[in-house]
């Protein structure tokens, strides 16, 4: 249907034709921007229909208003929110919420708007408008905290880069800058840039929302792959502990292989790095146990161990005691195990005696995760 036909339908004396036209208009308004001449004509015809005699048409107008940035719909929705019909009022309230959420979502990127609103709509269906608002407020607080912490982490890395750049500038302003000093400053900048990239890559991995495809896997093979990756990733030590994988080949789990592999790799890499220079390289032990419909995976090291405070920090974003750490390793593992696989990850550690990480996951992927 072209625009002229649509405009004629919106003016039709047949209310069923008008209702159909409003539905088409709603589709046209999705993703529209103020200023499009064709869309402006549709808006001019659509807004007065908020006073249509048929409640079905008024409700359709309220729903269409959710998808248009045009300011005229603010007054339209205010009018429909006082409508005599309950369904019209509910549609107007939902659209007003969606418009407000859309404005907020634009600061995060318009490409995420539909996903955010779809999630909020599902929550509203289950828990009502108050549930939707509570979840949105909590999500905003989490996002603000994440942004604030990330800002501080990046500033900590960028400031020394700026300092080194100033030193380089001062040295280069002299007639004969010492090559050794120039080399030292450029090395410092290189290390900081490398760590900044690691933080940003960690952030990307942590905030990723990949499509989750669960497959039945032999856990011994997945754990062995994770151990190989972890050992190859630890390039700072000339000697590393062995990783003994005491897992029968008969134990299977329904997992998202790539994501679960990432979680196990992070846990094992943490275990490897816990062995301080000169410490006894007693092997890291990985065991599994079937507990009804659950699989328990235990990773036990004999490294430096952690205090209670350090255990808490190890699961907190950006908190790290490692000179080149990013603070994303174990938090990402927790997200993958708990949020994506419906499992649990816990830590038990004693300073100077080692750490035990316990992972508990369902053997079969549940239809709906908690």
Record the strand order, biggest sheet: 2-4-5-7-6
Distance between the termini: 45 Å
**Major sheet size, sense and barrel closure:** 5 strands, mixed
| CATH secondary-structure class of the largest domain | Alpha Beta
Global mean pLDDT:
79
The global form is: extended
Rg measurement, Å: 29 Å
What proportion of the residues is helical, as a percent range? 55-70%
Number of strands: 7
CATH architecture name of the largest domain: 2-Layer Sandwich
String of helices and strands: HHHHHHHHEHEEHEEHHEE
What is the overall number of helices? 12
CATH topology label of the largest domain = Heat Shock Protein 90
Description of the molecule:
The chain is α+β, with helices and mostly antiparallel strands and 370 residues long. The chain has 3 domains: 3-108, Leucine-rich Repeat Variant (Alpha Horseshoe), CATH 1.25.10; 148-207; 215-362, Histidine kinase-like ATPase, C-terminal domain (Heat Shock Protein 90, 2-Layer Sandwich). The protein contains 12 helices and 7 strands. The strands form 2 sheets. A 5-stranded mixed β-sheet has the order 2-4-5-7-6. It has a two-stranded antiparallel sheet with strand order 1-3. Helix 1 crosses helix 2 (15-29), helix 6 (86-108) packs parallel to helix 7 (113-172) and helix 9 packs across helix 10 (257-273). The longest helix is centred in the middle third of the chain and has 60 residues, at 113-172. It starts with a helix and ends in an 8-residue tail after the last strand. The model is unreliable at 105-111 (pLDDT under 50).
